[in-house]
Amino acid sequence: MSDKEIILTQDGLKKLEEELENLKSVKRREVAERIKIAIGYGDISENSEYEDAKNEQAFIEGRIITLEKMLRNARIINNDEIDIDTVSIGSTVTVEDVEFGDTMEYTIVGTAESDPSQNRISNESPLGKAILGKKRGTIVEVNVPAGVIQYKIVDINKK
Domain named Transcription elongation factor GreA/GreB N-terminal: which ranges (predicted)? Predict the structure, then answer.
């Protein structure tokens, strides 16, 4: 990961800080204990428990480094920075599929905290890019694998 600016909402910042704290205080200890137990089984050259624990340790240490770098390069979007006249990072936007009339609500976030299952989409996603900077009532076209979908921006809020 480069030193690219990471855009986070207050919620996103809190979640990353909690994950980092958990990795440092809980997961590190757990995996160190697993390694210690596995070493107790004897010959580590053919010990799958030891190998698994060492792999997990490497993953945890890598994730800690990644999270620390993300937090160092973070730009936090405060709630009072969120404009409800135009779509911006942190906005909660209701869009309507022009063809079918279905409405969906999404919160626009930076890529580090996007989670489509929670309706949190990245500002770099096709829909996120299309609606960023647009006003209520605007119709945007989004290229998707199935073709082009038109969405109308119905409402813009902040939560």
Answer: 6-76
Same domain, residue pair 66 and 109: no
Nearest CA among 112, 107, 113, 114 for reference residue 131: 107
**Which of 50, 48, 31, 30 shows the shortest CA–CA distance to 40?**
50
Cα separation values, 153 from 5, 12, 53, Å: 27, 24, 49
Give per-10-residue mean pLDDT for the chain (159 aa): 78 93 97 91 82 95 95 88 86 95 94 92 94 95 92 92
CATH of the domain at 61: 1.10.287.180
Q: Whole-model pTM?
A: 0.75
Pick from 105, 157, 93, 112: which is nearest to 14 by CA? 112
